């Protein structure tokens, strides 16, 4: 919708048609856990704009409950809910097909959407909430990523005891470095009514619960699978578009695919890492929206580029804010970068102000140059999110730890310590860089 | 203390002597209002580190209650509390003499520190609190800057009715653009028990209160003068150091003054604006500390520079967070820069999340190039502070509005809207830049 809206804003007289498989457009997928928990009461609250905003006000021809089932050179074929098909010719095509949940091998048949759920679109939010309303005492969430954590908190808010099963060693294992993952795991383990099982995958889901790889089982009235997502590229493949190593559609900075007049945006497309310059898959809403904006601008004849993304991600669960931007130390090393990290544990306000919170912060940089590579934070207030965002801004400009030291963060006792944890981290890094620079 | 500590860390065997006029070192001047309000109960809580941290642990020879009264080529003369003087020779001198409160013409005699106060050091915090403990029903705070606002809130917390008198047109008039100053003024005017009188100076302070320039008067049991500060440069002048246009000591990026082996740091010294490249006076704690760190490093033979500061400033008063970095639109125009601004009023969380707050944000940029010049924000939560800090990071790297658009701020519904107000501001600016770029 971001791309369509942008085209229509710049080219009022162009025909813009949007096909949407579900009944919802402009929906907040990230809000699903908050609908499940009843923090967001109505499902309709998760719709950013009503359909009329796009159709009447913006002049976009939105065709909901209509799935594009075929695509070729200059045309698409779409199937309406009643089964009838329509063919539409295009001058320019934008693929914004998103991502779909991964269902682990052997578990696909267990997904019945009555007791065993995936989280794919708004309808799932409604069904999971209905299930919880009907009563559930024991829940298993498979997957300790962002969605798994958020769903676990949402289900726990109904009073059900929740077990999070994560195959790898800790929570958010593909986001955070091990030490941070472990720290988060310890916090979540400490939440009443929540258990965390790590290092074990799920081998099957049966009547009474979940069976783990080691043969042990966990009873469950409700199971939510949240083990990850994959870009939805079936249409892209039909068009023969080049896919990247991540499996998402390869695009340039202008969201152009390998085929002329075909663009890809959102969770279906890759972006370029501002840190490495290499393609990455960052299926995050804020990136998706910017991709849409850029594609729409370019299609309409304007100049826009998304030169890079830092893959900043965040959540707030069980009273902890988690945020990360750029690379973790482990990711940097895996890429062969000579990376180092400095850790700071600090208060988030002036020491003498009551009610300050805590932050555990890591800043990752290149050992030879001091160039910033990333940051991650856990914090008891929201400041960890923002401190990571400050690093995201510096990553955008390829800054180094000296820039971080110099960045003139404001200070007032109620809002931060006079030596901000970010500046302390920079100082530690500078001390280590010492003679090397 | 930052400079002294740094030298001692790098040069353990050097003799480092610190003279301090008061009995306190490493004190949190910015914390004074919070001691007055009793949020910080003990005055000693405002001491970052006890004296022994510096003397015993760091090996610094700190001589408190000893004022340097003369300085010459290679020596200082200091007077102890008992009146005895000592002379000390130095190889390197660091002036960290800070700033002193401005007392408006004609009001100096009224300052009795029993009923009429300035806020200069920790002792003032104690005296003002004693006065409030003794009972005060009506207070006048002269000056609507950061300190005036914070003192007004602190005094109001005792139940006294407070009138803030600001000579210029609104609160924080030299920090914020007029529209933002007016918005803040409206909020503060709405606080029960607080009045704001703008556009009128104080002509005298008499027994029963304050007399304004227009002849009207305001009753007061207690008057706090908070009309600004000036760099304390009497020693610098004795040494014949070059002062900048601001009146503070001119220094280079390494904190070196016009005289060899003499450094100046903190509120007594100028810094270089990262935005304009010109010297500016930014008497803020976080800048002062960095200056000390840089001077100490350089003195000890290391390499360090403070290439520029954004003069980021902030406060949280009466439930509003105020923050600013770089230039306001008015400041930019006064400097002859072809500047423009975009304003965004938005929520600070995903729209559907209950309990989100509000932000009013301005981003200032150069019209011809889109280069960022500054930002200011008022917000109901602390996110305005952090959004301004994100811009401070971008200013550090001389970023433009396209960089701001691209900065990959994390998104999660509980912490921010998916189109962050900063990104919305960037979009608005890009739209305006349109053909020009």
Number of strands of chain A: 24
| First and last CA, distance of chain A | 47 Å
Radius of gyration of chain A: 23 Å
Low-confidence stretches of chain A: none
Largest Cβ-defined interface: A-B, 73 and 72 residues
Overall pLDDT of chain A: 96
What class would the helix/strand composition of chain A place it in? alpha/beta
Specify the overall morphology of chain A. globular
- Strand ordering within the main sheet of chain A: 8-15-9-10-11
- Describe the sheet with the most strands of chain A: 5 strands, parallel
Helix count from the secondary structure assignment of chain A: 12
Topology:
The structure is a homodimer of 437-residue chains.
Chain A: H1 2-10, E1 17-19, H2 32-36, H3 51-57, E2 61-63, E3 66-72, E4 75-80, E5 85-89, E6 93-95, E7 99-101, E8 116-118, H4 122-134, E9 138-142, H5 146-156, E10 161-166, H6 178-189, E11 194-198, E12 202-206, E13 209-212, E14 217-219, E15 222-225, E16 229-231, H7 234-238, E17 262-264, E18 271-272, E19 279-280, H8 285-299, E20 313-317, E21 320-326, H9 329-334, E22 339-347, E23 358-366, E24 372-379, H10 383-396, H11 401-406, H12 421-433
Parallel strand pairs in A: 1-2, 6-17, 8-15, 9-10, 9-15, 10-11
Antiparallel strand pairs in A: 3-4, 4-5, 7-16, 12-13, 13-14, 18-19, 20-21, 21-24, 22-23, 23-24
Helix pairs in contact in A: 1-8
């Amino acid at each position: 919708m971001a791309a369509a809206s942008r085209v229509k804003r710049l080219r009022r007289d162009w025909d813009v048609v949007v096909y949407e498989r579900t009944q919802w457009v402009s929906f907040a997928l990230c809000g699903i856990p908050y609908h499940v928990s009843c923090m967001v009461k109505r499902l309709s609250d998760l719709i950013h704009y009503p359909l009329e905003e796009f159709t009447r006000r913006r002049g976009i021809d939105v065709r909901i409950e209509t799935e594009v089932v075929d695509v070729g050179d200059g045309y698409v074929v779409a199937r309406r809910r009643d089964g009838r098909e329509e063919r539409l010719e295009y001058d320019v095509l934008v693929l914004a097909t998103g991502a779909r949940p991964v269902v682990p091998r052997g578990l696909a048949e267990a997904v019945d959407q009555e007791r065993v759920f995936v989280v794919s679109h708004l309808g799932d939010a409604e069904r999971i909430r209905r299930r919880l309303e009907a009563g559930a005492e024991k829940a298993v969430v498979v997957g300790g990523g962002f969605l798994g954590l958020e769903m676990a908190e949402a289900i726990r808010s109904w009073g059900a005891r929740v077990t999070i099963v994560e195959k790898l060693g800790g929570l958010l294992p593909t986001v955070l470095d091990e030490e941070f993952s472990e720290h988060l795991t310890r916090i979540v383990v400490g939440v009443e009514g929540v258990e965390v099982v790590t290092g074990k995958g799920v081998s099957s889901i049966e009547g009474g619960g979940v069976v783990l790889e080691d043969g042990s089982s966990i009873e469950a009235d409700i199971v939510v699978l949240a083990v990850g997502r994959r870009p939805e590229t079936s249409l892209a493949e039909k068009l023969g578009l080049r896919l990247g190593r991540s499996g998402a559609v390869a695009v340039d900075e202008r969201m152009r695919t390998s085929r002329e007049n075909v663009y890809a945006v959102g969770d279906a497309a890759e972006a370029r890492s501002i840190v490495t310059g290499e393609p990455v898959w960052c299926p995050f809403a804020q990136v998706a929206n910017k991709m849409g904006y850029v594609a729409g601008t370019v299609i309409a004849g304007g100049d826009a580029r998304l030169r890079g993304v830092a893959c900043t991600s965040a959540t707030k669960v069980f009273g902890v804010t988690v945020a990360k931007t750029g690379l973790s130390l482990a990711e940097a090393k895996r890429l062969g970068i000579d990376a180092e990290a400095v850790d700071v544990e600090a208060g988030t306000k002036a020491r003498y102000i009551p009610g300050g919170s805590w932050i555990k912060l890591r800043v990752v940089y290149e050992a030879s140059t001091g160039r910033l590579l990333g940051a991650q934070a856990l914090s008891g207030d929201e400041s960890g999110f923002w401190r990571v965002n400050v690093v995201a801004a510096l990553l955008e400009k390829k800054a180094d730890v000296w820039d971080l030291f110099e960045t003139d963060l404001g200070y007032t006792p109620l809002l931060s310590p006079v030596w901000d944890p970010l500046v302390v981290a920079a100082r530690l890094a500078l001390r280590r860089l010492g003679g090397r620079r």
